[in-house]
Write a structure and sequence with these properties.
The protein is mainly α and 171 residues long. Helix content is 78%, strand content 0%. The longest helix is centred in the middle third of the chain and has 31 residues, at 54-84. The N and C termini lie far apart (70 Å).
Length: 171
Amino acid sequence: MTLEADNRHSLYLAHRSALVDYAARILGSREAAEDIVQEAYLRFAPGRTTTESARQKVAYLYRIVRNLSFDVLKRRRIEHRGHAEDPPFWTMPQSAETPEQAVMFCDEVRIAASVLASLPNEIQVAVEMYRFGGYTLEGVADHLGISVATAHRHVRTAMVKIATALDRKNS
C-alpha cells in the first residue's frame, strides 16, 4: 500500500464505528449501515489527491455514507410504493356470480393480456415478476440488468396502459 492509501485506511478504521452509527440513524438498521459504510470505504479508498487534510477526508467519508444511505432510502420508497396500495382487481381471483359477470370478467382479462402482450418483452417480464411472481422492484431490476427506477417505470407504464384500456372498454 502507498502511504496515502495507508493513511486513508487508518482514517477509515478510526472513524468506522461512528460512521456505522451515523448511517444506522439514517437507515434505521445497523446491518444496512454496515453495508453502506463498507461501500463508502470502497469509494473512499482509491483517493487521488494528497493535498486534503485529514479533516477534509473525514468530511468526505461522512458525505459518501450520507449519500449512499439516502440512495438506499430512495430505493426502498420506490420499491414499497406499489405495495402500499391494493393490487388491481384484475390481478386478484374473482368469483363470478352470474354468467354475464363471468363473460365481462373474461373480457377484462383478455384486454389486460392483450395490452401486456403488445408491450416490449422487458416490460412484460417486469410486470409478470413484480405483480404475479412476488418479486421486489430490486429483484426485477437485478434479473433484467436495469436500475430499480427503470424497473418501476416499466411496471408503472404497463399498469397505466392496462388501466386506460379497461377504462375505455367500460366507458
